[in-house]
# Entry
Amino acid sequence: MRAEGWKYVDAPHAELYRLADDPAETRNLLGTRSQLASAMRARLARYEPPRAPVARPTATEAAERLAALGYVGGGLFTGSPSGADPKDRLAEFEANERQMREALRLYRARELDAAIRVLTRLDRGSSASFNVAYYLGRSQLERGHAAEAVPPLEKAVSLAPSSAVAWALLARAYAGSSRAAQALATLDRGLHEAPDNAELLALRGRILLEQGDAAAARTALEKARSVDPRDPRVHVDLANLYRGSGDLVHARAEAQDALRLDPRSAAVQVAWGLVLGAMGREPEAAEAFRAALRLEPAQADALFYLASVELRAGRPAQAAPLLERLLRTAPAYPGGQEALALARSGAPRPSPGGVALRIIRVHDRARAEAAVRRAAAGEDFAGLAHELSEDASAARGGDLGIVRPADLAEPLRSAAAGLGPGRVSAVLETPDGFVVLKRER
# Structure
C-alpha cells in the first residue's frame, strides 16, 4: 500500500519505506514506525477479498507443461501456515527450478537413472510437489522399478486426486510389484474421481482379465471402448478376451479394429495373429507374428507363437532360434523352456495340429469361475481338476492327452485353438455345464 509518501508491504516479514527519502527502498523503517505500519495494515485489510479454496489441478497435461518450465509446485497446501516469507526462500526456489528443468531434460533423453537421482533430491526437500513426485514415480516405473515407484506416486495422487494419469501409473506400479489387489483398489479410487476415464477402465479390465475374471473384465473393457473407441489397446484386450471365451466372431472384429487403428503396433499384430491361429489360418498367423517382430524384434509373445507355429508345422530347426531369443530376454516365459527342449530334440508333434489339454467340467458356473481365479493365482490346474471337476478325467488331473481343436465342439474348439501353452481359458458354457481348459503345450 502507498499513502502520503509511505509504502507498506504486507508479508510474513513486513516492510515499510519512506519513498520521498528512500526511493530505492533500502531502509526498512518497520521497527521505528510500527504504529504507522499497523494503521496501514488495517487499511489494507479492508481491500482483501474473501479467501476461496484453491482449485485442484484437473489436467495432468497442464502440470507437465509447468514442470517442463521447471515449476516444482503443485498440489494443495495442507497444514498450518509456517510464517516463512517467500522472499527468504527465493534462492532455494531458483535452485529447485534449475534442478527440475535438468530432471526433465534427463527424463526426455531417457537417462532415467540420472533423472531419478535429481528428482529424489528434490522430493526430499521441504516443499511437497506433485510434479516432482509424479516424474519420480514415472521414471522409476519406466526404469522397471515398480515397487520403488509406489511411494512417490502415492504422494502424487494425494497432492492431485483428480489426476487420472497419476492414478493409472500408481495402479501399474502396484500391478508390476505383484500387488494386484492394491492395483484394483487404486483404480477404484481413481474411478471415483473420474468415473468415465477410459485409461483407468481399460487398465482395470486388463488386470481383471489377467486374474481370470472374464465377466468383470468384459464390463470394464466394453465401457472403456464406449468412452474411447479409438484406443487400439482396448480392442486388443477385448480380442483376447473374446478369443479366450471361444467367441471368434467378436474376437476377429476387435482385432481388425485394432489393426485399422494402429497397424504399426507389435501387440496389435500379435492379437491379430492369435485370432487367425484360432481360426485355423496358421500361415497367415505366422505372417502376423513376423510383422510384429519386424516392428519389435524382442516382442515375447510374437517370438513364442511364431515358434509354436513352426513346431506344429514340423520345423523345429526354425523354432529353436526364436525360442532362444525369447528366453534370453524373458527366461520365465510360460512354456518357453519346454518348447525349446522340444525344438532342440527335433521330435515331431504327436499329432499334426494337436495340443495337450486339461479340462475342468462342472455344472455350477460359480465353481468354474472359482477354478479360473485360483488357477490365475498360481494353483496347480491338475490339482484343481482333481478337486473340482465332475468330468471323467478328474482322476487324471483333467488330462485329455493330445487333442486336435478341430475335433472339439464349440465353444471348446475356438477356445482351445486360441490358447497358448500354459494358458487357461475363460469359463466356457456348454449344453452339459461349464468348462475351463488349460493348454499344457
